[in-house]
Specification:
The complex is a heterodimer of chains A (about 525) and B (about 325).
Chain A (H helix, E strand, L loop, with lengths): L7 H11 L3 H23 L3 H13 L1 H7 L8 H5 L6 H17 L1 H6 L1 H6 L7 H27 L4 H28 L3 H24 L12 H7 L12 H19 L22 H29 L1 H7 L3 H9 L6 H25 L1 H8 L1 H6 L5 H35 L3 H11 L2 H17 L7 H18 L3 H5 L13 H27 L5
Helix pairs in contact in A: 1-9, 2-9, 4-11, 6-9, 6-10, 6-11, 9-10, 10-11, 10-12, 10-13, 14-17, 14-20, 17-20, 17-22, 17-23, 20-21, 20-22, 22-25
Chain B lengths: L2 E12 L2 E12 L3 E5 L6 H8 L7 E6 L8 H5 L2 E4 L11 H11 L5 H10 L13 H13 L5 E5 L7 H16 L3 E6 L2 H7 L2 E6 L2 E7 L9 E7 L12 E7 L2 E6 L4 H10 L2 E7 L3 H9 L3 H13 L6
Parallel strand pairs in B: 3-7, 3-8, 5-6, 6-7
Antiparallel strand pairs in B: 1-2, 1-4, 8-9, 10-12, 10-13, 11-12
Classes of the chains: A mainly alpha (about 525), B alpha/beta (about 325).
């Protein structure tokens, strides 16, 4: 074995040991939801006629094409049932693989764990090689399990395999992307952020490309997520498209290793520059803001761009959504009822969930700051526990509220231009802001778990994923009503927000306040973790 | 002298591990109190309890007359703390962190801050990510020392500092004492505590086993002497203040109290002394001699001999 790769096997074992819950749970989760969707699809669309009608409606609805892509064979049950899985879930998969790759490369480097290991018989390239092996292996396992689950659900074996391999190749491609971003920044958060930007851009590229008539334009072919759609599983199974993500890997992996070879341990692409010798941070609130302002700005820019694009699609959507079958379909896909606003409402709900993801990441500073020992330094001063916790909790609440305000304004502005109706700005902004209280609830859950069972703080991410899955697929899966009602997002009022909506908002806000109060109680009583 | 810190019968458990087991500790105003113990003896736990970061399972804790669990903010305005593990925000500069901690403390003396930066030779414009361990330690020290606290709780404050900086630190602590402030200085280095402390408490396995002025604890500071002589004179172990005499060929080693040094040196010189090393005993030596094996080791040995270590399970 080459000298620079020495110890790769040991690191793979270490990584798998650390991920022994994370990876199997995610892989199983992906495979099981995919399989159950295949079964549910067969019940929803029992005959070819209903499939063709649904598929044609999707293909004619710009917002759905932008969000999920096209159904390339209207008669194919697999292509129709898995419409949300080829782009949307592939992007979620990409996020997971970026996260796993960075976790085993830049995060270990930033925390100094890698320095500890590097004293041993460990080659310079071993950490990156091990991380990529883990990501590639996990992608392959996930894809093959998903294929097996689809085939078991009654779909054609060849299409199932094409679908699974498409996911595997997408996961590998984004693992390789993260292998490169891990070399560029000194902070692991920034490396994950860069990876997320790549995912968002590739998603947007294929959205615009898919909207071109007829069929996808060259833009879709520039996007790895677009490639996954162009494999066209169950609609022609174009195996050769799988070569594209693999080719991307063979380009990116050597780039990552070469970047690593040309930098020092712990260093990024840029030299660390000196900063101010005097601090202007006046207290914990300033500190909380400082710790997340850049990330918030990045999210805000993404929200505004995304919002304007979605808003300007409004006229298309309202024209096309007037057929009874379209209304029926939107209902089946878990969207809103009010036909006129269904499209905007559905998009605003998605923004609401993205906003919740931001809030969750922000409020998780509570735990990460405690683990890092920063909280100990701050509580050694005259800062009280409540004040410190409030700084991160309130920053998360304010952050998501600001994001929803921006989402509302930009979607509203786009819609106002598209529909020649300036009143859209106000009502859309109100509807977007109405999504905030649901994310306040899940933010408060983090505070409560942090107060009473701090080690489980990060597990609230799983709760968010469960809520999203229930919201997207609950109807499809025939989930019991009470279970779906547990999700705060289900209670967010939709466009147009009426007086009933106000009551729901008050209830959500009160729930958030009660859960937060519980969290404060626990946090005041428990020991600080050392 | 006024008592600034008083802990009586304090018990702290983490799950089924008892970290503190009836700890008593008193610090009075205007003294530097050395708090000595090996790793894992409970020093940091004691300080965190005194800061209200942990809650005691039993016993009473008063710091500056206040209950640290209840009166956190009022109390912390009057004390300063340097954690044992200094963790800083990687993307802030050292200067930003010092100023932030100072403001949270209720204000620091700007002139004093600048003077400390000079004394400790720290560049405040660098991101803390680029600091060495010693420089991170300096950030926490400067932030604490620049405040006007009545009580300083310092958890192994010199770890990572070079000898020059250690010396600068000692100067600062003496200055604090001259101003009538109290310092609780935890350490596992006996010589550091000796150099600074008026009184010393020694903690072992969650209990304070020795406490008092340094002179009273003189018996703890025997010097370890090893000498090469032409012929070993008989009866060395009978000399006053000479203990644990071990003879091997022409080499003698012994533990000697300060009062016994002169007599021993005389005897060795007469015997034809041609090689001599002496060193103050380490804390571990003291524990070994006074209390047998350190408890940590004793328990692991016991566990290993019975059914294998519990942490291997």
């Amino acid at each position: 074995m080459r000298e620079t790769l020495a110890g790769t096997g040991t690191l793979v074992r270490l990584g798998l040991r650390r991920d022994r819950w994370l990876l199997p749970l995610w892989i199983l989760g992906f495979a099981l939801t995919t399989g159950s969707t295949a079964t549910a699809g067969a019940n929803l669309f029992p005959d070819v006629g209903s499939r063709i009608e649904a598929a044609n409606t999707i293909n004619a609805t710009a917002s759905l094409v932008a969000m999920f892509g096209r159904v390339y064979d209207p008669a194919s049950l697999g292509a129709l049932s898995l419409i949300k899985y080829t782009a949307f879930m592939a992007a979620v998969l990409a996020v997971l693989m970026v996260f796993v790759t960075i976790r085993h490369t830049r995060t270990d480097e930033e925390t100094g764990r890698l320095e500890l290991l590097s004293g041993g018989r460990l080659g310079r390239d071993a950490p990156l090689a091990a991380a990529l092996l883990i990501t590639f292996g996990a992608s392959l396992a996930l894809g093959l399990l998903a294929a097996a689950a689809l085939a078991a659900g009654g779909l054609p074996a060849a299409g199932s395999l094409a679908f699974g391999l498409g996911w595997a190749a997408t996961g590998m491609a984004f693992g390789a992307v993260a292998g490169v971003t891990a070399q560029l920044t000194t902070s692991s958060r920034a490396a994950i952020g860069l990876g997320a930007v790549v995912i968002a851009v590739t998603y947007a590229l294929r959205a615009v490309g898919d909207l071109a008539e007829p069929g996808p334009s060259a833009l879709s072919w520039l996007s790895p997520i677009g490639w996954n759609q162009q494999v066209r599983a169950f609609a022609g199974d174009r195996w050769w498209v799988l070569l594209l993500p693999l080719a991307l890997c063979t380009v990116l992996v050597p780039v990552a290793f070469s970047l690593r070879a040309h930098r020092d341990l712990g260093a990024g692409l840029r030299e660390e520059r000196p900063g101010p010798g005097r601090g202007a941070l006046a207290g914990v609130w300033d500190l909380a803001v400082r710790l997340q302002d850049r990330i918030l700005v990045a999210w805000a820019v993404a929200f505004v761009l995304f919002g304007v694009v979605i808003g300007s699609l409004a006229s298309n959507a309202t024209d096309l959504l007037s057929s009874p079958s379209a209304q029926d379909l939107i209902a089946k896909l878990g969207g809103a009822q009010a036909l006129n606003d269904a499209f905007l409402a559905a998009e605003i709900s998605i923004m609401g969930i993205l906003g919740a993801a931001y809030a969750l990441a922000a409020v998780n500073h509570l735990r990460s700051e405690e683990i890092a020992g920063h909280t100990e330094a701050l509580l050694g001063t005259a800062t009280t526990r409540a004040r410190w916790a409030t700084s991160h909790y309130a920053a998360a609440l304010a952050g998501v509220t600001l994001l929803m305000l921006l989402a509302g304004l930009s979607i509203g502005a786009g819609a106002a231009v598209a529909l020649h109706d300036s009143t859209q700005i106000g009502r859309v902004t109100l509807a977007a802001l109405a999504q905030a209280p649901a994310s306040w609830v899940i933010t408060s859950v983090v505070l409560a778990v942090f107060g009473w069972a701090p080690r489980l703080t990060a597990a609230v991410w799983g709760l968010l994923v469960a809520f999203i899955a229930l919201g997207e697929f609950g109807v499809l899966w025939n989930a019991p009503q009470w279970l779906m009602d547990l999700s705060p997002f289900r209670h967010s009022p939709l466009l147009p927000v009426g007086s009933g909506g106000i009551a729901a908002l008050v209830a959500l806000t009160a729930t958030a306040a009660m859960i937060a109060a519980l969290g404060y109680l626990g946090w005041r009583r428990r020991d600080l973790s050392a | 002298m006024a008592t600034v810190l008083e802990m009586t019968g304090v018990v702290k458990r983490f799950g089924n591990v008892t970290a503190l087991d009836g700890l008593d500790l008193t610090v009075t105003a205007g003294e530097v109190h050395g708090f000595l113990g090996p790793n894992g003896a409970g020093k940091s736990t004691t300080l965190r309890l005194a800061l209200g970061m942990l809650r005691a399972d039993a016993g009473s804790i008063r710091v500056l007359g206040l209950d640290p669990w209840r009166d956190v903010a009022t109390l912390h305005r009057r004390l300063a703390y340097v954690p044992g593990d200094v963790a800083l925000w990687p993307n802030l500069t050292g200067g930003e962190v010092i100023d932030l901690l100072g403001r949270l403390q209720g204000g620091q003396d700007a002139a004093r801050r600048d003077r400390l930066l000079e004394i400790f030779d720290l560049d405040p414009t660098k991101k803390t990510r680029t600091y060495s361990k010693g420089n991170r330690q300096k950030v926490a020290l400067i932030a604490a020392l620049a405040t006007d606290a009545e009580l300083f709780l310092l958890d192994e404050p010199t770890s990572g500092l070079d000898p020059l900086m250690e010396d600068a630190f000692r100067g600062c602590v003496r200055e604090l004492r001259d101003q009538g402030r109290a310092v609780l200085l935890s350490s596992h280095i006996l010589s550091e505590a000796e150099a600074l402390s008026d009184r010393v408490s020694i903690i072992r396995a969650g209990r304070v086993v020795e406490s008092g002025p340094l002179e009273q604890l003189r018996h703890l500071t025997r010097t370890s002497v090893t000498a090469d002589v032409a012929s070993v004179p008989p009866g060395l172990e009978l000399l006053p203040g000479v203990h644990d005499v071990v003879v091997a060929d022409h080499r003698v080693s012994a533990q000697v109290e300060p009062s016994g040094l002169a007599a021993l040196m005389q005897a060795l010189t007469v015997a034809g002394l041609h090689g001599l090393t002496s060193r103050p005993p380490t804390l571990e030596d003291l524990f070994l001699r006074h209390y047998g094996a350190p408890t940590g080791e004793a328990s692991t040995t016991a566990a290993a001999s019975s059914k294998g270590r519990p942490d291997d399970a």
